[in-house]
Write a structure and sequence with these properties.
mainly alpha; ARM_FBXO47; F-box domain-containing protein; F-box-like_dom_sf
Amino acid sequence: MTSRVNTSFTLIPNQKYRRSSRRSSCFSNTFDSDSQPLSTLGNFKALPLEIFQIILKYLSVKDISMLSMVSKTVSQHIINYISTSSGSKRLLLQDFHDLELPDREDTAIVEHYRSLGLLFKRCTLLLPTKERLKYIHKILADVSCFKFNGCAAPLQCVGLLCYGIFLQTLTAGWDELECHRVYNFLCELTHLSRKMQTVVCSKPGSARKLELRIRLFCRNVLLDHWTHRSDSAFWLTCILKPWPMVNQARLLYIIFGPISPQDGHLVWQKMIEGPTDESCLKGLAEAIKLLYDTGTKEWTADDVISLVDELSVVPREWLLENNARLLILSGNNICFTFMASKAVNGRTIELAKLIVFLALVSEKELYCMDWAVKMMQKVCKVFSTPVERNNFLQSVADAFACAIMEMLQLVMSGDGDDDDRSFMNLFHLVQAQASFHKEVLYLTMNVLPS
């Protein structure tokens, strides 16, 4: 009768174990193997280590991962197998380039590293966090595309993506203290803080390659794979919080700002030179919502609003239309809180201009104009006296008139290739004013729009 596999590795008090003279000498060379009873190998105890490793070659990564939970001894032999040249060659796949699939996270190599992350999670379960990270780094050190500057063609590479998926699987369920240790370990390994210091203290665009590397590392390794928004918020907080607010805004733009479709580098002048579209602002808006909505204790509402205010002057003051579009994409709560902050601080003229461009964006994107009117009505209640409210409403009317006159002058000046765009902006602004005032009249006269 075939003997059962004994999966227990707890020693019974006073029980003695006889060393088998039939054991292969190869087993004695494995790390700490003498301290483990051979019975924890079950039926594998009759096999030389070489045969055990051959068997592993025929198992999938998921199966090896399951096998590693049988006993501490089996897990140790799997760790030893991973460290061999044949094991690392088989498990550390490096075919990271020339993947044309639209969703790169669904590729076979990404799924392979997801499974590998689970294998390492189980094999290193009994080690302290610091030792786990050191061991994993030692194993992965030869994968050049996992390094910060390791790949010569980072835009055509899924190496950092695979590394991020691997780390996500490895750290899933870890508490914040352990995850902080992971972030600090990665920073020490890559000198990430020093590299960030370089880009935030340099002229925007003067270190384009380094900006791109920081963006790709932060997005692919730390931010983009989490199922729960609270996890993404945690890692984004790790990245931003050590820095002053002005540097936080620069880093946020580097990580989530608009990039060139040709070379992937940041387009620093995008928000300054002309109106932009939703695709250029969506990443920034999502990051702002992430910090505001997830209830992260490190971020108060005032912190997030100050960050948005600082962001709107990176690298110089944005066009108000782009600022308004960012606020709309960031959601009602952030938009109102941002505008209420201006009202409380007496920045009435700025607030009135912002109302105009909220209406303009609503007109261009076919949003309901009553939203802009109701937002103005809500902000109006922030002012404490009737005089302040009246001044604000007068400022809104004046801001519409000034914006139309400025755009009209631009059209009449005949600025070459921009004539058509200037005329269309003027057309949309006049339409926005008409729609806005129509909704105000509906509200004032208590008439429901048909």
